[in-house]
Structures are given as structure tokens and as C-alpha cells.
Amino acid sequence: MKLRDMAGSWALVSGASSGIGREFCVQLAAAGADLVLVARRQELLDELAAELGRRHGVRCAVVAIDLTEPNAPARLKARLDELKIHPRLLVNNAGSGHWGAFSGATPAAYEKMMTLNVVVPTLLSRVFHDDLVANSPSGVINVSSPAVFQPVPYMAAYAASKAALHSLSLALSEEWRSEGIHVQTLVPAPTESEFDARAGAYESQLDSRRDPPATVVARSLAALETGEVLVSTAKGTYQQRFFGALFPAKFVVAKVAEMFRPKKP
Fold first, then answer.
1. Which long-range contacts (CB under 8 A, 24 or more apart) does 75-80 make?
2. 202 carries an active-site annotation
3. Predicted TM-score (pTM) of this structure
4. What is the pLDDT confidence band of residue 206, given thresholds at 50, 70 and 90?
């Protein structure tokens, strides 16, 4: 899939109001793509849409919606059908997390998180499948996480949810290849965004450095040209995979827990 071919075609970006999602909109608009901006915060989406339209002359459709609500993916699809918008690129970026003890979040919070991280991208991929086929060569970018390469105590549900999306995404990359749909699984390094604050991040043994979203998105979009199915800007993922596969599970999760356990005052 060539990025230049997106000029005049529609790209749908979830979680478009900030962070990586916002940067996808910025860089896709610079390439001439028309945009469907999806997130909950109407005002931020409207401001971004106006900015991108003014700067790049692209069309922008704003859909302010909570994707964790019942039937939200289907309602989003119906709205775009009304507007006669049929995406050529789907960026499943919206997600949420929880740092800390598993018992520290409510069942309702976990239900929303698992819905947003796993169910929503699964259903969006399904409901827009026919549009992607009709507009092939087309693409899907699923935003994964370095947390998928081993279980993560103190981030247990988040890592599990991203592992499920990671597996789905890689499977679809092969299943949909013959239909002209390129599915990319993106593993970003820790990135400057609202994620840490919303997830309740705390001081631990993990590196506190964060990459700018522009670095992550530029790498992802460049990889559309080369057809890579697994794209990472995170360092050490090979060692993570080797470590998780070679050593006993009890040892692996104990070592990972040391990294993610909150530091004592």
C-alpha cells in the first residue's frame, strides 16, 4: 500500500483527539488523505478538523462517540454510510490502561478497558471489511504494545487485552492479504500522550523516557510502503520475546513484576 495513494481517499482514526491518534491525523492529512476523526471529545475533534482542513485542504468528518457504548461500531458504520464515506485505511488506535494492583480498578473499569482495547478494534475491522475490500489496496493499522510479549503483573488486564489484539492483527495480516488489505500491527515505544496520566502511571524501575508521537507515526506510515506486518519503535522487543520464550513462566513474571511494581517511598 502506497501512502501517496491515500490522497483523496478516506482514513478513519479512532482516539483521534490526542497523542498517537492525533498525530496519525496530522501526517495523513499532510499526505492528502481525507479523515474521519473519532473520539469522545467533540471540541478537540472540531478544532483539529478545522486546522487540518485549513492547512491541507482535506475533507474531515468528525464523529464524537464513546466506542465502548453498546453497538457503537455499528452505529459509527451507519453514520459513515449516511455520509457516503467508505474508508480505505482504518487506524485502530483508541485504547486505555490501568497501572497498579489488579484489585485497584473496578469491574466496570475493566469492562470498558477490555471493550475498548479488544472488542472495538475487532468489530471495527469487521464492519469496515467490505469497504476495505472495495477500496483495495487498503489497510488497517492496529496499535499494539510492548506489553504483549509477556504477562505483566501490575498491568495485568491491559497487557492481556493488547495481547489479544496483537494476535488478531497478525492473523488478519495473512488472512486478508489475498483480498488486498494490508494489516499492520504497530508496537510503539512508550510515547508522549495522555495514556500514562489516565492509566495512573507511577514511579517504577521502568525507563521514564517517552518518544514523540511523530516518530511512531512516521515509522508506521513508512512501513505501509514496504508491507511490513509487524512494526516496532520500541527497543528490546527481541530480547523480550527471547526471554519470555526461553525461561520458565514463574521466573519471567517475577522479573517483570520487579520492573512494574510501584517503588516504595
1. 76/38, 76/124, 76/127, 77/127, 77/128, 80/12, 80/36
2. no
3. 0.89
4. low
